[in-house]
Design brief:
The protein is mainly beta and 102 residues long. The protein has a domain of 65 residues. Helices cover 0% and strands 30% of the residues.
Length: 102
């Protein structure tokens, strides 16, 4: 697609990249403590990255979070055969902003 610099891209086609990570609790583990899908999306026409809205920055195995630049969603997942508490209770981190709004 040829872009017109005087007309904004309509963002009609997308590319999504998904990386699945097997996270170990420590280096002696033989199996993963949890799995994390890292998802990024960009416009296929102009390559503009998309940002995730409504999720806090950080990485915690019990809930979706995003990277500090909001370009990557960190989504925990588990095999369908795993217990519902698979990966829960493991440490993570969250980024909190302080300023005029916080």
């Amino acid at each position: 697609m040829t872009s017109d610099p005087d007309k904004p891209c309509p963002h009609e086609h997308f590319e999504a990249y998904v990386e699945i990570n097997r996270v170990l609790a420590d280096e002696n583990d033989t199996g993963p403590a949890y799995f994390m899908a890292d998802i990024t999306v960009e416009c296929a026409g102009c390559s503009e990255p998309f940002r995730w809205s409504g999720v806090q920055a950080g990485m915690i195995p019990s809930r979706p979070m995003c990277s500090v630049d909001e370009k990557t969603l960190h989504a925990p997942l588990r095999p369908a055969s795993a217990d519902p508490d698979f990966g829960l209770g493991l440490p993570g981190f969250a980024v909190t902003w302080h300023g005029e709004d916080g």
